[in-house]
Amino acid sequence: MGKWSRNLYEKTDYPDTYTPDDCFLAAIHRNKNLNKYTLHESVACASQVTLQFSSVILFYSGYIYLKQGWISSFNLLKLDLILALMAYLIAGTSSSLFGDFRHLIIFVTFGYGLTPVLFKLTDTISTDTIHTMSWIMLFLHLLLHNYSVKAYDTKPMSLNASLFSAVCLASRLDSSWDAFVLLSVAVVLFVLFPMARVRLDQALGLAFVAESVVVGVCFSISCGFGLGVACAMVFVNIIAPMLFVKWQSYKETIHGPWDEAVPLM
Amino acid sequence: MASPGDHGCAPPSNSMIGVHRLSIMRGVSCHWWWVCRRTWQLSFTGSYLLQRGHLLRQAYQKHRLGRCLFWLLVDVLMGYAWATLILAHWAPSTQGVQLVLGAMDSVVLYLRRLITWLMDAPAGLKLNSVLSSALGKFFLYHIHLWVTFLHLATPLLSQALSRTMGVLSYLGLMLQISVAQDTFNLVTFHVHCFFTYARRLFLSQTHGLQSLWRLFRGKKYNPLRDRVDTSHHDVDQLFVGTLAFTILLFLYPTTLVYFAVFKVLDLAIVALHWLASGLVQLGLSFQ
């Protein structure tokens, strides 16, 4: 018998299906594309999720505060404007100043113009239905959000779901001015804040401070709510990344000549 | 609404052009002529007479005029018997007019009650109170206009009806049915109007919701390829779109309920017309 070689276009004595034992399994690659994450990296990425989660919680707390009358709508608007200015300065002007001004004008005009319609919109629908619907929409917002730390690009469905829930909640408030304030809080937290959030992926300390402020606000609403939010944040931001880093060692993938050919781009 | 004009036979087009030219030559606007002609074609009586005349002409050309006239005689006899029966046992002719006018009043009263019922969120439906009352007021005002018109028209109409009542009994059953249909159409004309308004509102809102739902998912319709494409929208576009989507979505049940109620009313009227037109066609099929 002649020497075996890996081609089928020559006549040899070996059958077509023949492979020598030391040739096939020798080509195996284990954990070929493995990228080991450090704890710091995974915590930084997880903090993006918790920051967005805390912005959702902050929005809901703003609604509760307005609804219960714990804060006047004017004070909330002032807080909102401060937050907006900070977020705008951190995010930096991506486009021209004129473009940002145009966005602002559109938000204020349409928001203020449509709130008289909004706050009478869901009069006949029960409050529980509205709350459930807005929670589902906020969950959808978190689920579909773009958490990438490289560059922020709005996912339309995520943003729309959050605005939908904002409109639902605004329609339960007592006056159209309150509804407008809540809508502007939603715009700052769901439109402007994610642009600033991407810049904060290295500033872990700042993120933790912001999250603890949010947890404090939650505790002021009710103990159970605050405890729940705190547990969720600790789990997502600390325990889950630790588990992820620890369980990375169990990762095992094998590649070999049996794989489908992948074109190299 | 059933359109009885579509089975009416159109005269040959050269005669139309002839009339057209003639009226221009006389310096008379021919629009009025066309309006009258179209009304005649659209009314049940007019289309019945046109059809009957066409059939008679056809029978004359095929030398079957005798048979046709026989069935016409049967029709007239049946109409006379029916009219005598009604006048003798049910209502004398003056009361017949009162009956029609009373029916008008009860239709109006019933519609008013229905709209008022819709205005205060019936049966636990999640109607938007503001839109519902605005729509209700709009329809009530329309009814008010119609009632004013009826009050103006009633003296004329009752005179005309009481005069024609006697003549009609000699003109055959089919013509009586057609005249009854036309009267009924006049009485229930505002129901058609309501249905048209409600339908227009409902359709516009449905189309708006469809395209805004596409925007909600970050897509838009591409007419060039007849498909839905993913597209990039600005943040302010999304904001305005979502506001509009939410508002339209919560107003949708109200429009839907108004549309459904007026659709049912319209369907009932169309069914009655369908029945009566079926009877007339059955009578015309005897040749």
From TrEMBL, chain A:
- In the UniProt record, which is one GO cellular component term? glycosylphosphatidylinositol-N-acetylglucosaminyltransferase (GPI-GnT) complex
Please list every transmembrane segment annotated in the UniProt record, as residue ranges. 42-64, 103-119, 125-144, 179-196
Q: Pathway, according to UniProt?
A: Glycolipid biosynthesis; glycosylphosphatidylinositol-anchor biosynthesis
* Entry similarity comment: Belongs to the PIGC family.
Location comes to: Membrane
Q: Does the keyword Endoplasmic reticulum apply?
A: no
Q: How does it sit in the membrane?
A: Multi-pass membrane protein
Which key words tag this protein in UniProt? GPI-anchor biosynthesis, Membrane, Transmembrane, Transmembrane helix
An annotated GO BP: GPI anchor biosynthetic process
Tell me what this protein is called.
Phosphatidylinositol N-acetylglucosaminyltransferase subunit C
Instruction: Determine if Lipid metabolism is one of this entry's keywords.
Output: no
Which InterPro entries does the annotation name? Answer: Plno_GlcNAc_GPI2
What's the chief localization of this chain?
membrane
From TrEMBL, chain B:
Which GO biological process entries does UniProt record here?
GPI anchor biosynthetic process
- Tell me which Pfam families the record gives: Gpi1
Q: Does the keyword Metal-binding apply?
A: no
Bilayer-crossing residues are: 68-91, 167-195, 238-261, 267-286
Instruction: For this UniProt record, give its keywords in alphabetical order, as a comma-separated list.
Output: Membrane, Transmembrane, Transmembrane helix
Lineage: superkingdom: Eukaryota
* Keyword Mitochondrion set for record: no
Question: Which Gene Ontology CC terms are recorded?
Answer: endoplasmic reticulum; membrane
Q: Which InterPro entries match?
A: PigQ/GPI1
Q: What is this protein called?
A: Phosphatidylinositol N-acetylglucosaminyltransferase subunit Q
Q: Which organism is it from?
A: Tigriopus californicus (Marine copepod)
